[in-house]
Amino acid sequence: MMKILIPVDGSDNSLKAVRHAIQRFLGNGATEIHLLHVRAPLTQHAARFISRRNRAAWHRDEADKALEPSRALLQQHGVPFAAHVELGERAATIDRVAQRLRVNQIVMGTARKNSLTRLIEDSVTSKVLALARVPVEVVVGDSVSKLERMVVPAGIGAAVVFLLAAAD
Fold first, then answer.
1. Crossing angle between the packed helical segments 12-27 and 52-76, to the nearest 10 degrees
2. Residue 165 carries which DSSP code?
3. Domain-wise residue ranges, the chain
4. CATH fourth-level superfamily of 2-167
């Protein structure tokens, strides 16, 4: 039995990973699929003003919104699955859950980005690739928008100018 963990966030790219896993299941019914949605905990400052019950309800509602497209897709194809919701840092939590569930593989979707963008930004995919103790299959999704392709390099250029000015 092949056990696959699919981190999902409700994005089109994570749905591509789910579609990929569905094709695998249809080719080999001996596949167990686990969806995982990781929620970032609220900051201590924000948490002080919201009751534990309200925080839990909010996290549950947001997780349901993120998981719903993946659940619907799996149900539409008659693929059995289990859904999990965890709080924590995304990459470390994905690795921890993969170990706890003893999955054979992590399948995750990611946007097409240039190497400079991946180097600068905080990529969950890159972190999972570095942390995971099981194979990670990355399903490439859509390209980033033109705006994002221009803004990140412009932001890097502005940071360099600022650092040079501060050095003088």
1. 50
2. H
3. 2-167
4. HUPs (3.40.50.620)
Query: 3-class SS at 34?
Result: strand
What CA–CA distance (Å, rounded) separates 70 from 47? 29
pLDDT (tens digit per residue) in 55-91 = 889 999 999 999 999 999 999 999 999 999 999 999 9
Distance (Å, whole) CA 10 – CA 4: 18
Query: Closest Cα partner for 18 from 33, 37, 32, 30?
Result: 33
pTM: 0.79
CB burial of residue 7 (10 Å; 0-12, 13-18, 19+): buried
- Contact between 39 and 86 (Cβ < 8 Å): yes
